[in-house]
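<discrete_fold_record>
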Amino acid sequence: MLDRFEKVYEGLVPDGKSALFAVSGGIDSMCMAELAYRCGKEFAVAHCNFHLRGEESDGDEAFVRQWAGSRGVVFHCRDFDTEEYASANSVSIEMAARELRYEWFNELCEANGYHALAVAHNANDNVETMLLNLLRGTGLSGITGMKEINAIPVFGGGSAVLVRPMLGFTRREISEFVSQEGIAYREDHTNNETVYKRNKLRHNVLSVFGEINPSFIRTISSEMKEFAAEHEIADEYFYLNATDVLMEKNPGEILRIDTGALMSLRHWNYILFRLVGSYGFRGRLLEQICRLLASADTVSGRRFESGEYVLVTEPGRIVVRKSEGRIPQMSISESGCCSIVRTAGTYSFDSTEFEVEIAKAGDDPVSAARELASHGCIAVDSWAFAMPFVVRRWRKGDWMRPMGMRGAGKKLSDIFTDMKLGISDKASAIVIAVPEMTGKDNEKAGEHVAAVCGHASGSFFCRVDESVKVTANTGSILTLRMPDPTVR
């Protein structure tokens, strides 16, 4: 195992460069640190104390500190009030810990010149992530697995790279090596709990896979490499053929597709999906369009709408335009609006399809909201949230009062600055706004930002206004699931 690790590591971190190792004290990270130490690699250790398990958390810190000190390895440690951060930013505990640690890791890399941040994701973690992506709904990109080298998932990007030198090792291989070599590590009792989806999958599902195929981790890992290769082939096929079916657009048109050229392609339906899917024409709506094109009937004169966009079939072509629909003044102003939500259902906005649901809150509404936020969902108190509401891009002057903030509100531009969002991340941020009615005859006074969300550097962020946050007294929760636009 030592030889295998050294070869992998040398391919990820150039000779003469140092790395920062994220070490929790658990079996995976301790195995990674011990392997690097025995290989004579130059690295430092970073440990986060999230103070979520009382004395256990402090014990983990002391253990990792002692390990690093006894070997002369530079040791970094930081304490975090994870629960306060999660509450203030309306995210789950898991997401809070993720945001906090990666921001700090990136700061350490920049301050100390570390070339890479090494994390101890293993082959089992990779398979679990792929299966969770499948359960949430994903395209090829979601089942290709984690990469051995990637960018650090922080807003605005980082100076160092993220490496995963343990990705080729199974959990069983790690356990056997640690046992044989007498490597000490700390047990986290929460890994045995099935509250979290990953643990539930790990303990209740993967054990069944193991009974069917004892080598299923290796098998699925191999398949993920094939999926990644096939994804590249699909991308190449699309880019080679897309330009041949596109026609010169008229003013006001977004797309003009030559249906003759399109239908001459063997995989025309995939090309069509890639062209119009980003404008909301997916799922059942796309199926209707494909059935129409494949039928012997005339396809001219049919109209399909996806909220903000309209697709029209004309003789020999398909045209996509912006919808000419108007938004009632009593709902919200027209300027910059993208999608109006009047009830639960599926909607489309600016190349993204999102779902709005309302469900009973259950016994622990706050925990439920945090769990939803960890999976790319905005969660608010449906009783305090007004319908209809609008989903749009942010505008200068937008403001809100984020959860936990007292007194006056805060401009979204300032919130984005605090979050270190890049220019493109700000431009793609999504605002949930509701109308404010005051004065005679409920005359419209303006808009109030109830939430803002988006994806940046591979991480979902969400900020909810204090007035609509989920509390212990919440009876029902309104959720808006906004998938990552980079995942097809």
In short: Residues 399 and 411 are 4 Å apart (CA to CA). The first strand starts at residue 19 and ends at 22. Residues 326-337, 437-445 have pLDDT under 50 and may be disordered. The chain is about 40% helix and 25% strand.
